[in-house]
# Entry
Amino acid sequence: MHPQTKKYAHPTIVIVIAILTLANTFTINSQNVKPYNSFRPGEVWLDTDSTHINAHGGGILYNKGVYYWFGEFKTTGAKGNTAQIGVSCYSSTDLYNWKNEGIVLKVSDENGSEIEKGCVIERPKVIYNKKTKKYVMWFHLELKGKGYKAAKTALAVSNHVVGPYHFVKSVRPNQKQWPLNYPDTLQTKKYPKDLEWWSPAWYTAIDEGLLLKLDFEKGQMSRDMTLFVDDDGKAYHIHAAEENLTLQISELTNDYQNFTGKYIRLFPAGHNEAPAIFKRNGIYYLMASGCTGWAPNAARMFKAKSIWGPWKKLGNPCIGPEADLTFKSQSTYILPVNGKKDSFIYMGDRWQPKNPIDGRYIWLPIQFKNDQPIIKWEDEWMLSTTHSK
Ligand code: DGJ
# Structure
C-alpha cells in the first residue's frame, strides 16, 4: 500500500464528512436558536437557553412593553412540589419566546424562616403599584413540614420587576372582619360539632359560615390565590378559603401590601380553587377548578357586573374532548393580550406530581359566543390566526 493512502483519507470522503459535520452542526444550532412562532399546549416549552420553562402555577405582569411570567420553580422527584429554590421569572415581548430572568424570590436557608427551603410556595402573582413604584408579589405559603395547615398568603416586594423580591410577611387575611355579603343575623349562630361532611345539614352550616366563624379571630384561610388590578387601580386578592370550600374576594390597600378588611364570600361549599379572573366589556369573569389535588377536573366560570357581586354561574367554559378535565390542566391565570381587543389567553398547569419539574403549560385562546367565554383545544395556535375576533 502506498504510504500516503495510510496517512490521508481520499479527498471525496473528507469532503463528504465535512459536509455532514457542517450540516449536523447547523441543524443542532438552528434547533437551539430557532424562535417559536406558535403555542403548542402540553409540549415541552423551551426558554431561549433551550431549557424547559420552570414557572408553574404562574401569572403574568405586562410592564413597559414586556411580559414577565412568574411561577413556582419546581424540582425533580418527591420533594419537587415543595419550594427548594423559590419563585422564577421569565420575560418575553411576543409571548412565544421566553428568556430566563432567574430566581426572583429565593427560599431561605435559615432554620425556622417562614420561607425556609422545603416550605410550600404556590401560585405567585406580581402586580405593579404606580403610586409606590413597587412590584408587589403575593403567593400561597405553607410552612415547612406542616402540610397545607397554615393556609396563608404571603407578601414579597421589589423595586425592580425582575427582583430580587424581599419577603415581608405572611398573613391570614381579614382577621376579625365579616364579609360584606354575610348577614349580621348569622354571626352568632351555633352548629353541632360533629356534622357529617356533605350532608344537607353540613351544607347549610358551611353556607351560613361555620368555617368562616371558626377563622374569624385568626383570619381567613388563603390557599390557591390570584391578584387582579382593576381599571381604577384598585387591586383584589382572590383566594380559596374555608378549607377550600369557599372563594373569597378581598380588597387590597392602595399600596397593595395589606388587606383593607372589605371582602365577600363566593359560592360557599362550592369547592372551588385555582381562581383566574379577567374583565371584558365591563364584566368580570372568574374561572376556577374543583378540588382534586394535582388531578385535573372540570373548570367552572362565573360572571358579575361588579367585583362585589352578585356572581352568576356560567358552567364549564371548556368544550370538546377532555373538556370535563379542562384538557388535563388546572387554571392559573387569564392573560389579556396587550393592545389586542378581546384577546385573552387561558393559562393552565398540567401538573406532574411524580416529577413536578416536567409539568406542562396549557395555554389556549378564549373565544366568546354571545358573550360567554369558550375554551377549545388546539394542538398548535398563533395569536394572529386563532384568536377571538
Ligand atoms: C391543587 C392546587 O390548585 C395546587 O396549587 C396545589 O395546591 C395542589 N392542589 C396540592 O395538592
Summary: The chain has one domain: 41-376. The radius of gyration is 24 Å. The first helix runs from residue 3 to 7.
